[in-house]
Structures are given as structure tokens and as C-alpha cells.
Amino acid sequence: QVQLVESGGGLVQAGGSLRLSCAASGRTFSSIAMGWFRQAPGKEREFVAARSWSRWSAPSTYYADSVKGRFTISRDNAKNTAYLQMNSLKPEDTAVYYCAAKPGAVTPYSDERTYDYWGQGTQVTVSA
After folding, report:
1. pLDDT tens digit sequence for 21-76
2. I need a surface site. Which of 44, 76, 88, 102 has the fewest CB within 10 A?
């Protein structure tokens, strides 16, 4: 079992930055994929970024086109925490952001149905 807790959301002006954290507790795994998704009011949840880590291969990363070049996903293995660094934020980035985990994965999946565990979400609001 894995528990995920997000933090770091808030209100920021357009052009600003935020860093979201996703602290994982429970078992540790030799490979795992972590994903970030977001859901804006009245819209379906959408993929933002994902990264896979494996004891036997280099990390692999995948970003949605809408955030490529502005967002960076990373992980501190010692803290068992994943991060989403968000720069050059736009009002259209406003949403509830969720982190997700797929233990045992070696590929960064963009399909939310792939993930086994989810955090509770953290609100990000970008003002114009």
C-alpha cells in the first residue's frame, strides 16, 4: 500500500512559479512511475507529466505539450518525494493537481487508468 500526500499549491500571478510536492509513504519499490494530473473546473482530468524510475535503467520522462518547457518533474529518492516544478505559469494552468503512483512500472504513463494510487489533490490558481 502507498499513501500520497500533495502540498505546495496556492495562488500565484501569471508568469510566476510554484513547486508541488508529493510525499509517498508505505513500501519502497525498485521501479515506479509517478505522474501528475490536473483537473480544471468543468473539465476532465488531464495528464501533465510523468517520470519512471528503475533500479536497472535511467529515468524516463514524458510531458504534455501544454507544459513542455515550463514544468519539470523530479524525485528525491531519499525523501521518497516527487516534485512538479512549475514555471511561467498561465491562467489556464489553474486546476486541482493530483499526483499518482504506479509501483513496478518502468514507463512514464500518461493514461490515468494505469495508476494505482492517488493523492488528495492540491489547488493551483494562477491570476492574470
Report:
1. 999 988 778 899 999 999 999 999 999 999 998 888 888 999 999 999 999 999 98
2. 44
Measured CA to CA, the distance from residue 63 to residue 54 in angstroms comes to 19
Confidence of residue 106 (pLDDT cuts 50, 70, 90): confident
**Which string of b and e fits 54-77 if b means at least 16 CB within 10 Å?**
beeeeeeebbbeebeeebbbebee
CB 86 within 8 A of CB 106: no
Joined grid coordinates for residue 47? 495528464
Reported as a pLDDT band with limits 50, 70 and 90, residue 93 is: very high
In DSSP notation, 31-97 reads EEEEEEEEE-TTS--EEEEEEEEETTEEEEEEE-TTTTTTEEEEEETTTTEEEEEE-S--GGG-EEE
Residue 91 to residues 5, 68, 111, Cα–Cα distance (Å): 24, 16, 24
Mean pLDDT of 9-25: 96
Instruction: For 107, list phi and psi in degrees, rounded to 5.
Output: -125, 140
